[in-house]
Input
Amino acid sequence: MLWMLLLGFLPGVVCFALAVRMQPIDGDLTRIGAYPERDYGWNAPQHVFPRPLYGSSVGDGAEVLVIGDSFATAMGQHQWQNQVVAASGMRVSTVSAYDQTVDQVMAEPAYRAQPPRWLVLTLVERHFPSMLARHVSCPADAAARTRIAPTRAEPFIWSGDVPEVPMAVPIERNTRWDDWRQVPLGVGYKYVQRSLWRAATGRQSTDAWEYPLDRSGLFSSERSDRLLVFRKDIQKSEQWASTGAPALDCMLDELRRKVEANGHTRLVVLMAPDKLTAYTPWITDPSVRGLSELDALASRHPDLIPPVHRALEAAIAAGTPDVYLPNNTHWGIKGHLVAGQVVADFLQQRR
Output
């Protein structure tokens, strides 16, 4: 009877031990994919801003108003907007693109009374067509309209130097459970279940997919030769293809007309590249190459879309670790600093 009782407890003990060894969950990709933080968590400290340098409302007199998804709102002390403020001295404010559309923001009395010099719409690549469609639609007479001709863009030159945060505060990842009673047994169970599935079938079993890289050191994680990405990074092609390049061009032109109709505000569209796009040159699996249309779209709108994607790729090529966090879909502090500096330079050149 005792051995049966012990046998009943054994799976729980194993799952508990695995969860402890895996370390506390920190990233969205390690969470949904049941990957161990011990292997995929970032180990180098993130030297972030002491506090956010930007506001969070429409009516605060900001020169730059950001309307964005999680790449503009998720990580206050990391955010690229801090670097825009630090590099340019301009006042910046941010509101969520999930809560308000561009039309709703522009209809606010505070916006009409004191419109910003720049409106920066920030959207991630994988959801760009559908999210853009929430903010603008192609007019019925689009075919008869003349496309807005882009002005000649300055050639992109990236020094490769990642800016430093003034008076930076180091943040370290928590690698130990504070209380053993908080250790979730389900984490260990999911790890066993999904690891066995991947080993048996050779297929990805969750929304977090793993790819080998042809070089190590691009992350500060133990498995720095592995890339975790969100499944929708791979599946974005269908959404982009169904929308089509002409419709995207049309929506961007229409949004620009609406935003710039007051004769004062200028539109900027910051497209955050998917993690897969940024690291594609180093992925050994050829099946995931050529999925991104970001660069082609940016090339057609050079005075609207700052070349953040090229700067991020250049920083990665230079060996900068944790441009994206290894366990997350989002940028680390270095990715935010690169993006913020590119945006600051882009705005300064077009003042």
